[in-house]
Design a protein that fits this description.
globular
Length: 551
Amino acid sequence: GFCLNRHSILMNPIFWVLILLVVNPTTTTTTSPPPPRTIGGEGSSDDRPNIVFLLADDLGWNNVQWHNNGTITPNLAQLAATGVILDNYYVQRWCAPSRAALMTGRYPYNVGMQYYNDIPLGFQEERSAVPAAFKMIPQQLKDVGYDTHMLGKWHLGFFSSQHTPVGRGFSTYFGYLLGAETHDNRSSQVSHTCGMKVKDMYHTDKPANTSKYSWNNLYSSFMYTSLSREVIHQHANNNKQRQKNNKKNKPLFLYMAFQDCHAPYSAPSSYLSRYPSLPAGKSKRCYNAMVTALDDVVGNITKALKDTGLYNNTIIVFSSDNGGPAYHANNWPLRGAKFSVWEGGTRVPAFVHSQLLPQHARGKKTHALMHMTDWYMTLGSLGGVPQSSLRNSGPVSPDGFNLWEQIINPTNNSTDGPRNQLVYDWDNVHNIYAFRRGSWKVLWGNVGIDKWIPDKSWPGACVPVLPYNASSSSPSTVRAIDVNSAVGGSGSGGEYSAAATGVAAAADDDEDIVGVHGQGSSVCKENPCLFNVEQDPTEHHDVSGKYPEIV
């Protein structure tokens, strides 16, 4: 086994002074500097930062504009260029385990989530969940005064109401509980034991049966634009009311878990038309269009933060949950793809953007080693959660670190900071092992698809989007309206119906091609492989024979 050094560091306060120099031909005037601002620290204060966590689904390393101009992502590129790009940042190899790492600060094998939806083991999706003994980050932030809201994909279990988003600390929720659904009519499949096709959409703690989004076929990106703007505007209005009542503002925690760019691959014609050079009807064109649709949602969220005056005191974090799926996304030049423990399945685009970042950090990249588990300690510390509460939040101590210092002081050295190792996966049932210490990475067993997949069009199809039902309003109107009336009473629409919807259920990527649990490759299967991923980030040179003592 691996002996991991689990400890957390207290946050050092951050101070900076803004000095405004006004120069004219005859005089120089300097304003008095404002008092220093401390970010984080225990206790509550009404100027603690808002936190907006944007989690893309299945975004490839090379499907963002700062890595590849072929994918149109101007909003993401602008935020990244004026923030801090996390250039040595890792997640788990697929959806649910990564989300468990984010919410708990633990590696999936420490919370039992490496077997999520493993049907042969009897862990079907309706039976899989993060154990309630682990206190998730929304509950930690809620306990110290944050308003906590979630939109989008949950994928961490619904065994009971205690295991749903509201049961784990979110005050409100609108989205889907399973791992995938169609982007228009919200059709999903309740695990693989009964195969029932159902509408998977919930509002807070009840099915959203009466919401117009349940039947109007509005493309998911448009829907989440409206919903996210509503959450942000409502939060700002609530704070104005608190001020009138001489009460402290509440900080916001918004977790936007995007549906894009997960299968089934489909996008409106307005986005498909932005990629005229890509083959029509093929998944590559659809996939890129979905990334651009996601980018537009990010732009709308950013605008809402600015319009409401929340932007200057908000920390925006962007990440993908895993690498892009093989033969649809673009992970080039990294090896492998989603479901694999190669770099292409686990190293993803990420950044932090905020006006709270010191000036010297903005526009920089940091090469400090980071992992999805680190957000638990980092965001908890920024929000003023007591360190004892973060450390003692479950039967196993957190695996993550508070890496805010590494974010605000970008470095070219992967060893600058408390993290010098990470576990890509540890699965003793399916024999998947991958571990990094320093610059050395070892892989062994069913490591997953091992190819360097070129960026070209593959045979996958593009699923047509169902026509929008404009009986109540047009898509352009829906994007701008106050959706409180649409979702405010959506939980009272009767019992959940398990009847088939009559439409195709959402596809689960290419599990049959590449395998969720590492099938499809004989490389490193019998003997471990070793790579120096600092010198060889594309994993071309296995040096296990040269350095057997390191293995």
